[in-house]
Amino acid sequence: MHFTSEQHLADGVRERAFTLGDIPGLLWTPASASASAPVPLILLGHPPLGLGKMYPRLVARALQAASDGFAAATIELPGSGDRPRLPALDRARAELRGAMRAGEPVGDEIVDALVLPLVDQAVPEWQSALDALLALPELRGPVGFSGGVISIGVRLAVVEPRISAAVLFAGSLVPRAVFDEARRVSIPLHVLLQWDDEGNERQASLDLFDAFGSREKSLHANMGGHTGVPQSAGDEAARFFTRHLN
Amino acid sequence: MHFTSEQHLADGVRERAFTLGDIPGLLWTPASASASAPVPLILLGHPPLGLGKMYPRLVARALQAASDGFAAATIELPGSGDRPRLPALDRARAELRGAMRAGEPVGDEIVDALVLPLVDQAVPEWQSALDALLALPELRGPVGFSGGVISIGVRLAVVEPRISAAVLFAGSLVPRAVFDEARRVSIPLHVLLQWDDEGNERQASLDLFDAFGSREKSLHANMGGHTGVPQSAGDEAARFFTRHLN
Question: Which of B218, B223, B239 is closest, CB to CB, to A220?
Answer without folding.
Answer: B218
